[in-house]
Specification:
Helices cover 54% and strands 15% of the residues. It is α+β, with helices and mostly antiparallel strands. The protein has a domain of 80 residues: K homology (KH) domain (GMP Synthetase, Chain A, domain 3, 2-Layer Sandwich), CATH 3.30.300. A hairpin with a 2-residue loop joins β1 and β2. α1 packs across α2. The mean pLDDT is 83.
Length: 125
């Protein structure tokens, strides 16, 4: 028999997980250290499980073994830095992070000043 779905509870739980992911993402370099930060990233937190992604397939098997060995230390850091009580960690393959495009230049506060600057630039050519 299927259990009834409680949408209010699920949405509250998901909101809490999303907040947990944000706190953990900010603390990620301190949680995993500089060596792992270079090729891992936080994927998600679901049902007290941390899903960590790694985009180097050759590293994943040894990373899984290492994580099992140091899980108590990582768990303590996560509790201290992000105030999360997680039960386990799972390492999954993932795509590398995408490069974000550079931010757009700020819009001028005075549109006429921008036009004047543009005209002066064209005039001096």
């Amino acid at each position: 028999m299927l259990k009834p779905i409680h949408f209010a509870t699920e949405s509250r739980q998901r909101a809490e997980e999303r907040q947990a992911e944000e706190r953990l993402a900010r603390a990620w370099p301190m949680v995993v250290g500089p060596a792992l930060q270079a090729h891992t990233r936080l994927l998600r937190v679901r049902n007290h499980v941390l899903f960590m992604g790694c985009w180097k397939p050759e590293v994943i098997p040894s990373l899984r073994l290492s994580v099992e060995a140091v899980w108590p230390d990582i768990r303590a850091r996560i509790e201290r830095l992000a105030r999360l009580n997680l039960q386990r960690i799972d390492v999954l393959p993932c795509d590398p992070p995408t490069q974000e495009p550079p931010p757009l230049p700020p819009r001028p506060t005075d549109p006429f000043a921008a036009v004047l600057d543009r005209l002066q630039t064209l005039h001096h050519r």
